[in-house]
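Second attempt. The first submission of Autophagy-related protein 9 had a stray character pasted in from the spreadsheet, which I only caught after the job came back as garbage. Lesson logged: always re-copy from the clean sequence file. Corrected sequence (296 aa) follows.
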Amino acid sequence: MAEQGEEDRQYREYRRLEDCEEDSPPGEEEEEQLLLHVTEGPTDSWHHIKDLDISLTLPHIYHFHQRNGFACVVLSDILELVQFLFVVTFSTFLLCCVDYDVLFATRPLNHSHVPEHAKVTLPDAVLPAPQCARRLRGSGWLLFLLVLAGAVWLCRLVTALRRLVGFWEIRSFYIRALGIPAEELCNHSWQSVQARLLALQRRQPLCVPRRELTELDIHHRILRFRNYTVAMVNKSLLPVRFRLPLLGPVVFLTRGLQFNLELLLFRGPAALFQNTWSLRPQVKRAGARRALARGL
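This time the job returned cleanly.
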């Protein structure tokens, strides 16, 4: 009984919020998404944006501020692409263009001008370019991995370009709608940006919710997935706590495990959410939850 009472007390800590979408008919989901949309005034150029859900969602506006503006975003993406190329190129060089027998002195050098007991240097262990190319062409699995790495790099390049297009729209929104020039973004805290966002909404319509946009709405949209993850960990729905012999209770949540959990619960084809914050209609029906849980 004591354990049951403790469990009931813990569940009472999480109170169900009113959900205005519970009985919404199909087709209204897109109309109820929280989208920034300036309809009149000095920022009426936003009428031409075709996909507001991608380019101007609150999480993207928040991440744009946290990443210190468009220039930092561009530089970060470029450095990530260059880093990927460097890792692949340097790994290929170490596999194909280095004679490790010479490097570790298990085989003497064959250069006539080098004394027998001379110190081995890095240039002595590097193979000539033609020999390196032959070793590369003779390894089928390495060629396959290079092709795969090239495909991954191209996918990352396309993703970065698409993300930059969205961030460019957000940059224009900061400048024209919020009145924050790009060079002054670093001087504004997120609380300042949020205050300008709410003030702009009071002057003219900014979003398409059924109730007024508040600070709590903004925080819910930005931290929706993280709040769900924290709640599931608190309720022991995610297996991240283990008891090991001699060590006692430990928490195990690696980056890889976290990525797989997010893909399964939030971003995959069977995820609970159908976009950045809206739950799927079938998840809201209590009668279908047991079947959905078995399928998941």
